[in-house]
Write a structure and sequence with these properties.
Helix content: 25-40%
CATH superfamily: Aldolase class I
Shape: globular
Largest sheet: 9 strands, parallel
Distance between the termini: 13 Å
Number of strands: 13
CATH topology: TIM Barrel
CATH class: Alpha Beta
Strand order of the largest sheet: 11-10-9-8-7-6-5-12-13
Order of helices and strands: EEEEEHEHEHEHEHEHEHEEH
Radius of gyration: 17 Å
CATH architecture: Alpha-Beta Barrel
Length: 261
């Protein structure tokens, strides 16, 4: 089995009385075969409006898309996620324009954006295709003991299985805590192949999901097959084609019986 990768982070939780109590050894853990839900914010308004105290009922980790925030505001608003600090683990992403990013950001520009948020992060997303250009950031994450997801996106098709296996191997060799695949699926054969890829052992926890009209069913199928990170949107704006609302996805995933070959 691929085992577990831990996301270690002390989390302060604000109780109903208004004071803060510290959970001194709170750990966000990625475990092979255990599906968790990532709530992704598609816009600054949704992020600002998020109810921090109720967010844990919607998702297990919240994704902040720095590229989307920069596209909307030019990066002028500092830390619109500040009210979520210590309430839920935060995953920060500055997506490459080649893989769905909202701005034509260079690797160097995205590294700078991500380095600025490391103190708030439980996890960072870096595309497999960007590993060479962001090698310095990967080293910094290793030095901090801060885990990261190696991601792979194709908005047109589901790549051949060998290409996915090669990407997973690159993620493992680089020290990623998990490998994520999001690709467009065109029919039942793609769904089956994506599920088969999820069920295989790639040496590290793996997350898979489809995009497009078959995305909703693909995300449930992959979660049932052990996808460790399953993305839904929070607010009104999906961040990928065919995404579930995160609250609905969390409910649906909780009803699934794990499938093993």
């Amino acid at each position: 089995m691929a085992g577990s990768r831990r996301f270690a982070r002390t989390i302060d939780v604000e109780g109903g009385s208004g004071h803060h109590s510290a959970m001194t050894d709170e750990r966000f853990q990625v475990t092979a075969g255990k599906p968790l839900v990532v709530g992704s914010f598609g816009g600054a308004d949704d992020l600002r409006a998020a109810d921090a105290s109720g967010l844990s009922g919607v998702c297990d980790i919240a994704e902040i898309r720095l590229d989307l925030l920069a596209a909307a505001s030019g990066g002028a608003e500092p830390a619109p996620w500040r009210h979520l600090r210590g309430m839920i683990p935060l995953l920060f992403t500055a997506r490459s324009p080649e893989e769905g990013g909202a701005r034509a950001l260079t690797d160097a520009g995205r590294v700078e954006m991500l380095e600025d948020v490391l103190d708030d992060a439980a996890c960072i997303d870096i595309e497999v295709a960007s590993l060479a250009g962001m090698a310095g950031l990967v080293r910094e994450l290793a030095a901090r003991g801060l885990p990261w997801i190696a991601s792979f996106h194709d908005f047109e098709t589901l790549p051949e299985t060998k290409a996915l296996e090669d990407a997973a191997g690159s993620a493992l060799a680089a020290g990623a805590a998990a490998f994520k695949v999001a690709a467009r699926v065109h029919g039942p054969a793609d769904l089956a192949r994506l599920a088969d890829f999820q069920l295989a052992d790639h040496g590290l926890p793996t997350a898979t999901m489809g995009m497009g009209p078959l995305a909703p069913v693909s995300r449930l199928l992959c979660a049932q097959c052990g996808s460790v990170l399953n993305y839904g949107f929070i607010g009104s704006t999906p961040t990928a084609p065919g995404q579930w609302d995160a609250a609905l996805l969390k409910l649906a995933v909780s009803r699934l019986e794990p499938f093993r070959l």
